From TrEMBL:
Membrane-spanning residues: none
Domain AB hydrolase-1 residue range list: 24-138
InterPro entries noted in UniProt: AB_hydrolase_1, AB_hydrolase_fold, AB_hydrolase_sf
Protein name per its UniProtKB record: Alpha/beta hydrolase
SUPFAM superfamilies: alpha/beta-Hydrolases
Nucleotide-binding in keyword set: no
Source organism superkingdom: Bacteria
Keyword Hydrolase annotated: yes
Similarity annotation: Belongs to the AB hydrolase superfamily.
Protein keywords: Hydrolase
Alphabetized Gene3D superfamilies for the sequence: alpha/beta hydrolase (3.40.50.1820)
Species for this entry: Fluctibacter halophilus
Pfam family, one: Abhydrolase_1
């Protein structure tokens, strides 16, 4: 396991590499407000692969976007592609959790020639809203950004309180939260601060429509594995029931655990991933 840095023209992406580069590449994408450490337990179990887990911009140790920018979903897709191109990666096995699974599905559809397989944990395509809500979405997004700009940042009192807060917010156990917080907190002038860019918490400007989600999932040409947690998000299961016919080659499975099952109960998840990849 080693830290990596990828210098892009507009920012620097950090991450963790598990395994040797002469093995097939698994590019791992974390969920919203998480970081590359979310794959700390799962990645070593994929011993026949080189797992590169990225910190997406604004997360973990990666750069924040410039003060005049925001965190649009499609900009993350561009960041991922910039890393793939800069590193010269091809035949990528994409592994995404939650938001990372959403981004993986979009990337696989937009750049199918780069992606060999797609594995999504607790996510099945983009979150959507009806087109009629567009003006309300924009209004709430703008107001949330202006409101945050005028509020002082909140700092954790100590490390343990930060762990408790992350566990509560992420619906996960204390030890899983501790792994994420260790990579997402730093000390500045005697005070603990979150590394995560707080602008990530503002409301998205516009979500895709269900028709756009269908077009994206229809565009996934590679085999896809969807992993649910037995106690995972019901919305993911509902989306899968409604959308599963939109992906050309889809395998669905369920493993013990909640939304962060890859971090809290990784053995079953690893077994399902290995079985899926061995049969491609």
């Amino acid at each position: 396991m080693q830290d990596i840095r990828i210098a892009l023209p507009h920012l620097t992406i950090t991450g963790i590499q598990f395994g040797q580069t002469d093995k097939p590449l698994v590019l791992a994408l974390h969920g919203w407000l998480d970081n590359a450490a979310t794959f700390t337990h799962l990645a070593p179990m994929l011993e026949d692969y080189c797992v590169v887990a990225l910190d997406l911009p604004g997360h973990g140790m990666s750069s924040h976007r410039s003060p005049d920018a925001h965190y649009h979903q499609m900009d993350f897709v561009q960041d991922i592609h910039a890393c793939v191109v800069e590193q010269g990666w091809s035949d990528v096995i994409l592994l995404g959790h939650s938001m990372g699974g959403i981004l993986g599905s979009i990337y696989a559809a937009v750049f199918p020639e780069r992606v060999k397989c797609l594995i999504s944990i607790e996510a099945f395509g983009p979150l959507t809203e009806h087109a009629s809500t567009s003006t309300d979405q924009l209004r709430r997004s703008i107001e949330s950004r202006l409101s945050m700009a005028h509020r002082e940042a909140k700092h954790p009192e100590d490390f343990e309180s930060a762990v408790r807060a992350r566990a509560l917010a992420g619906d996960m156990g204390r030890e899983a939260a501790r792994i994420l917080v260790e990579r997402n907190i730093e000390e500045r002038e005697g005070q603990l601060s979150w590394r995560t860019d707080r602008r990530l918490r503002t409301i998205s400007s516009l979500r895709l429509t269900e028709e756009q989600a269908e077009a994206i999932l229809n565009g996934i040409a590679c085999p896809m594995l969807l992993i649910h947690g037995e106690q995972g998000f019901e919305k993911v299961k509902a989306n899968a029931e409604r959308r599963q016919g939109w992906v050309k080659s889809l395998t669905r499975t369920t493993c013990p655990g909640g939304h962060h099952l890859h971090l809290e109960a990784p053995l079953d998840v690893a077994e399902q991933i290995i079985y899926f990849l061995n049969n491609q």
